[in-house]
Structures are given as structure tokens and as C-alpha cells.
Amino acid sequence: MINSHACGRLVMTWGLVCTMTLLAGCADTPTVVDRQFGASLRQIQTAQSVHLHHTPTAYPPMVSDGTSGKAAIDRFHKSYETPMPPGNIFNIGVGTPMTAQPAR
Fold this sequence. Notes:
Elements (H helix, E strand, L loop, with lengths): L3 H22 L6 H4 L3 H10 L17 H16 L23
């Protein structure tokens, strides 16, 4: 036999729980989980940044003059004009590498 008083109390309890759940979804203040949303991503990005707030004195600013920059660009372009000869494949991992003689 089912107790009608217990059933009524159960229905009322579940109704109250469902109502509170729906009202909590409309709350204006964010929950603790919502407030911390994305914090781990921001922490990882901060950890990967180099020199966040200041540059340490151990690392002076990288300064280059125009002459050395032009020389580097010229070496880059010249490397395509005369590429390095291929190495000998029989000495891979043995001693010093020997380059093949260029064809004449």
C-alpha cells in the first residue's frame, strides 16, 4: 500500500528541486567555475611568454648595423647560386664528413 502523504512529500520535494535548479540557471552572479573559466589557458600562455614585464640585464637588446645585415643577405643569395656539394653517404656517422668532388 502506498502512503499518499509520503508521495505528496516526494513530489513536492522534487518540484522544489526542479524549481531551484531552473532559478539557479537564471542567476546573475557567475559560479566559481564560471569565474575561473579560462584561467588555466591564461596561465599557460603567461608561462610561455618570454620576458613578460621587462628584459633582464643579462640579455642586451639585439642591435645590428646595416653592413652586417647586408652581408648576411648576400651570403643567403649566394648560397643558392653555388650550393654546397653533396656529402659522401658511406661515412654517415663515422669520423669527419667528406664532401664529394664537384664534377668538371
